[in-house]
Automatic annotation (TrEMBL):
It holds the Pfam family Peripla_BP_2. NCBIfam families: TroA_like (NF038402). Keywords: Signal. Residues 20-275 form the Fe/B12 periplasmic-binding domain. InterPro entries: ABC_Transporter_SBP (IPR050902), ABC_transptr_periplasmic_BD (IPR002491), Vit_B12_bind_prot (IPR054828). This is ABC transporter substrate-binding protein.
Amino acid sequence: MKQVQDQTGNFVSIPFPSQRVISLVPSLTELLFDLGLTDEVVGITKFCVHPEEWFRSKTRIGGTKQVNLPLIESLKPDLVIASKEENIKEQVEAVQQFCPVYCSDISNLQESYEVIEHLGFLTDRIDKANQLINNIQNIFKGLSVCSKPIRAAYLIWQEPYMTVGGDTFISHMMELAGFENVFVTEQRYPVLTIEELMKRDVEAVLFSSEPFPFKQKHLDAFKQTWLRQSSIGQLPVCKIVDGELFSWYGSRTLYATDYFIKLRESLFLSDELTA
């Protein structure tokens, strides 16, 4: 048996190494693949789209917000991986009645390293986990600090619009990418209106590709409303961004820095931003 304390404070004891794993967290599903697990992963959610071969072949146990408890139990897992933020507390507690659950709670890169280490330990892939952590750390060391961050809001939903506060992983990634989150003093996921956003002296509005799949038509509607309601406020730069690279912790962060550099350059070169 092996035991670790997860990020919610619970001690998780499992047969070692874990041989039947279910992941309820898309970003951590991808991490398990990159740690070298194969047949050990017996269930994933319908939102676990990476890797594609697992998305097409692994048993899907529902979504992150509505899991199929009888199906999970029937798969006889010895470890279920969950997220305090992404999964429903009552459903996680129900799973805990018949299986150990490791629950993550991540708001910055350091906490993501901890999860990588813990899952590497529980699945007997600690060497690969440590190498992955080193690779990510080295990549982010090469990301230069922006001398003049772009004041930005990051939208994750509409009707109503929702953004991210300072205690989120997305906000931490925004900072690393060269953005100043204008809602950094808020907590979690504030609901806002365009009128409220106008008061924040925002230079750029980032529309995430997930969880709400923002498209160009949504940006156009936002711009029209802004111009209609503001006779003097300058329209901020509006851009759709890759939500996975801002919100997926784990091995997906390996690809984040190159994307952040290109995104930052594209916004600094924008006529709207430099005018």
